[in-house]
Each structure stands twice: as structure tokens, then as C-alpha cells.
Write a structure and sequence with these properties.
Largest sheet: 4 strands, antiparallel
Low-confidence stretches: none
Number of domains: 1
Distance between the termini: 32 Å
CATH superfamily: NADH Oxidase
Order of helices and strands: HHEHHHEHEHEH
CATH topology: NADH Oxidase
Strand order of the largest sheet: 1-2-4-3
Bound molecules: flavin mononucleotide
Helix content: 40-55%
CATH class: Alpha Beta
Mean pLDDT: 97
Number of helices: 8
Structural class: alpha+beta
Radius of gyration: 18 Å
Shape: globular
Strand content: 5-15%
CATH architecture: 3-Layer(aba) Sandwich
């Protein structure tokens, strides 16, 4: 797969087969991904790769928190509102995903089921948590995390793996810290659900759209 094809075919996968991912495969993906650029080559990313039963335990605890109504408490502040144009895109993608999944507008039960499923990483057998040191300037370090994260998602394609980058994976950092050895000075940025895509799942038929570059680009000096 060439680079253009990989970039264009990557999409978020939201249903996974119950099939484990070999540690060596994740090692190869990470060995490729760390060639991402970073500010002054600081490479601020660190990874915690969680697999198998531990993923299930984290998922179950996350679900309990969500069901109890506990508010997310991420290490890094997450956006809650956006200027109109971005909010419209956020709402549009959510609605379109639910439509593809056959979830009707008023079907609260199905929506809640979806959010619970999100908290278990959509059934992915493995999650790559990406974190940074709390002493770093977060907005620059998270730019670099974005680069390495995209590399992980693209490299995964070579192995037939699908990914979903997930802010929801780090909504309850205490749960993660209870189960893995993550020092308090390290700040979780996101989790990447990774596994073999379920080809039958309606969620995986979904394709998001993009604003055309024509609408967001100004050209000078041509
Ligand atoms: C930083 C970040 C956080 C995200 N968090 C979630 C999440 O918690 N749950 C989810 O289902 N998708 C999440 N996504 C996936 C986006 O919804 C998705 O990338 C976007 O709608 C574009 O769709 P595509 O990835 O299929 O191209 C996240 C993406 C990014 C970059």
C-alpha cells in the first residue's frame, strides 16, 4: 500500500473481531511510528500498550464510572464547546455515524449502549495509551503526539489492523492508573484502540467526510 492510499483509506474502526494482536506486530508498528517529526526532535510521546484481559478490566471499570454518572476527569483538558463551524462538523459526524449504525434520533437506549461500548474500546483486544511528561508544554507536545498517533494508525494498516483514536479512552485516568504502573507526573493524552476490524459491523461501513481544501486554502504567489 503506498502512502497516499494508506492516508486515504485509514478511518476510525468501531467494531473489532475477538482476535488477539501479536506483541511483535505492535512492536513493529511502534518502531515505524516513532519516525514521526517532533519539536526539536524531543519525541515527547510515551506508550503504555495494554492487552487482553487488562483491556477488559479497564473497559468494565470505565463502564461502571459512566453508568454511575461520574464526570470524565482527563489529565489534559478536553474541549467542551467550539465555534459554530467546528461544532457543526462535530454534530454532523455523530449523526451520520448513528444513521449508518441504524440508531434513530430518539433512541436513547441505543445511544447509551454506543457510549458504553466506546468505554470498552469498541471491543478492541489492545489499546495503545499515549502519554507525555507533565513538565512539557502540553500544546506543543500534543502536536507531536498527533504525528506519532497518525503514524501508528497508518502503519497498522500494513498488518490488516484497524484503529480508533480515542479521547474517551482517557476519560477516567484513575482507572488506568489503578491497573498499570503510570506515574502521576505522566499525563495521558489519548488511547488508540487497535485490532482486526469486524467486516460485518455497520459501524465499520461508516465513512466520515472532509471539507474540500478549496474552501480552507488561500494561495499566494502562484
Ligand atoms: C484526538 C481524537 C480523539 C478522538 N476520540 C474519539 C472517541 O473518543 N471516540 C470515537 O469513537 N472516536 C474518536 N475519535 C475519532 C474521530 O471521531 C474521527 O477521527 C473523525 O470523526 C474522522 O473520522 P475518521 O477517523 O473515520 O476519518 C477521535 C479522534 C481524534 C483525532
Amino acid at each position: 500500500m503506498d502512502v497516499i492510499e494508506a492516508i486515504k483509506s485509514r478511518k476510525s474502526i468501531r467494531a473489532f473481531l475477538d482476535k488477539p494482536v501479536k506483541k511483535e506486530v505492535i512492536e513493529e508498528i511502534l518502531a515505524c511510528a516513532v519516525w514521526a517529526p517532533s519539536w526539536g526532535n524531543t519525541q515527547p510521546w510515551e506508550f503504555a500498550v495494554v492487552n487482553g484481559d487488562l483491556v477488559k478490566q479497564i473497559g468494565a471499570r470505565n463502564q461502571r464510572k459512566l453508568l454511575s454518572g461520574e464526570k470524565p476527569n482527563p489529565d489534559l483538558e478536553m474541549p467542551e464547546k467550539w465555534p459554530d463551524v467546528y461544532r457543526a462538523r462535530y454534530i454532523t459526524v455523530g449523526k451520520a455515524l448513528f444513521t449508518t449504525m441504524g440508531i434513530k434520533r430518539g433512541d436513547r437506549e441505543a445511544r447509551e449502549k454506543h457510549y458504553l461500548n466506546m468505554q470498552r474500546f469498541y471491543g478492541a483486544p489492545c489499546v495503545i495509551y499515549v502519554y507525555i511528561d507533565g513538565a512539557l508544554v502540553a500544546h506543543y507536545a500534543t502536536l507531536d503526539v498527533g504525528s506519532v498517533t497518525q503514524n501508528i494508525c497508518l502503519a497498522a494498516l500494513k498488518y490488516g489492523l484497524g484503529t480508533c483514536i480515542m479521547a474517551a479512552a482517557v476519560h477516567y485516568p484513575d482507572v488506568i492508573r489503578e491497573l498499570i504502573d503510570l506515574p502521576s507526573e505522566k499525563k495521558l493524552v489519548l488511547g488508540i484502540a487497535i485490532g482486526y476490524p469486524d467486516p460485518e459491523a455497520p459501524a465499520n461501513r461508516f465513512r466520515s467526510t472532509r471539507t474540500s481544501p478549496e474552501k480552507i486554502t488561500k494561495w499566494y504567489g502562484f
